[in-house]
Design goal:
- This protein is mainly alpha-helical.
- The protein has a domain of 76 residues.
- Helices cover 71% and strands 0% of the residues.
- The protein has six helices and no strands.
- The longest helix has 45 residues.
- It starts with a helix and ends in a 6-residue tail after the last helix.
Length: 146
């Protein structure tokens, strides 16, 4: 009889856990839907003619669909010049970040035992030898567990 009681507890525990996950998924799907409404509205509005944009009540399906808005927007300003500028800046920033992080990581690689010496410093009484490694970790925003 003890075994049957354990099985009942396990089944009810699994069932309650499934209900909890179901409720969580319902809220997550509802939240995702709420956050996607502005994106859908933006896409729908981009396909409207200017006279339809501010009509009340709002119309979700534009009639007629103005596909010519997209070529107009690309020719309104030098879009591809700005796109290339953004790509160029991203490549420079990523390259600089990788180089600077590699230099810091290389300098910290030989100081593995310094990680443990951080705990020798008593922050409550401000006594002990604070290691410069502490300041590197604090300034770089790294987690203490690293």
């Amino acid at each position: 009889m003890k075994e049957k009681g354990k099985k009942v507890v396990r089944k009810s525990k699994k069932r309650s856990q499934a209900v909890q996950y179901g409720i969580i998924y319902v809220f997550l799907i509802l939240g995702a839907f709420i956050f996607l409404i502005p994106l859908a509205w933006m896409i729908v509005t981009s396909l409207k003619i200017p006279a339809q944009i501010y009509t009340f009540p709002p119309q979700w399906i534009p009639k007629p669909v103005a596909w010519e808005n997209y070529p107009k927007s690309l020719n309104f300003f030098p879009f591809f010049k700005y796109l290339l500028n953004t790509i160029y800046l991203c490549i420079l920033v990523i390259t600089g970040t990788v180089i600077s992080c590699s230099l810091v990581a290389n300098s910290m690689a030989g100081t593995r035992d310094h990680i443990y010496s951080c705990y020798k410093y008593d922050h409550s009484t401000l006594s002990g030898n604070p290691d410069p490694f502490i300041y590197i970790v604090q300034k770089s925003g790294m987690d203490w567990n690293l």
